[in-house]
Amino acid sequence: QEHATSAVTAAVHMLRCLRSMNEWSVEHGLPEVNIRCGIHTGRVLVGNMGFRSRMKYGVVGEDSEIPSFLEEMNKSYSTKLLISHETVSRLSPESFIVRPIDCVYLREASPGDSSREPEVVYEVLDRNASDSKSQQLTEAAEVHAVA
Question: Where is the Guanylate cyclase domain (predicted)?
Answer without folding.
Answer: 1-71
